[in-house]
Amino acid sequence: MFERFTPRAREAVVGAQTVARDLGHHKIDDRHLLLALLESDGVAAAVLRGAGADPAALRAVVAGGPDRDAEALRALGIDLEEVRRRAEQTFGPGALERPSPRRRGRLGRWLDTDHLPFTRPAKRALENALRAALDLDHRSIGTEHVLLGVLADEQSAAVLALRQSGVDLDRQAAVVAVREHLRRSA
């Protein structure tokens, strides 16, 4: 399927991996795709910015996952920073960090890899991008189609993150904005 992606759309998908890694996440989900689209060039970024999306605000929401966990633990009387400090004091620096992902090579040996896997919602968003391109009678998949794929599920983590960052953009409004943007640039 990736052979149908435009160079900008491919860059956005690779950018999602970079976003996930930068935020310390170990899988790529639809929120990472959304943030990579906003931080890239292309129709999707223009549509998102036109709807009022701010990369810094969205990044803060996407990065907010671990902070919410710390707040929940704090409510139970557990200080996450104190736990981390004691673990590192006992077991050494980085004791609580996840090891880099590994996979088996051709000869059965374990290999370290920098590749982050896609979550089901991210895979679904990319599948929906193909459907969006077909619905618009386009032969290739651009950033605009990836955006429509991400917005296809109104209850997805990406749509909720977008709303939490102050942007209320549903799929229908995005389709209209994409078509208008493509008509102007043609």
Could you explain how this protein is built, in words?
The protein has 186 residues and is mostly helical. It has ten helices and two strands, in the order ααααααββαααα. The protein has a two-stranded antiparallel ribbon. α1 (7-22) packs across α2 (30-39) and α2 packs antiparallel against α4 (55-63). The two termini are 25 Å apart.
Question: TL;DR of this structure?
Answer:
This protein is mainly alpha-helical and 186 residues long. Helix content is 61%, strand content 3%.
* Helix proportion: 55-70%
Unreliable residue runs:
none
What is the topology, as strand order, of the major beta sheet? 1-2
Query: How many alpha or pi helices?
Result: 10
Q: Give me the strand/helix succession.
A: HHHHHHEEHHHH
Beta-strand content bin:
under 5%
Write the topology of this structure:
Elements: H1 7-22, H2 30-39, H3 43-50, H4 55-63, H5 65-75, H6 80-91, E1 102-104, E2 110-112, H7 120-135, H8 143-151, H9 157-164, H10 171-185
Antiparallel strand pairs: 1-2
Helix pairs in contact: 1-2, 2-4, 2-8, 2-9, 3-8, 3-10, 7-8, 8-10
Write out key terms for the chains shown.
10 helices, 2 strands, globular
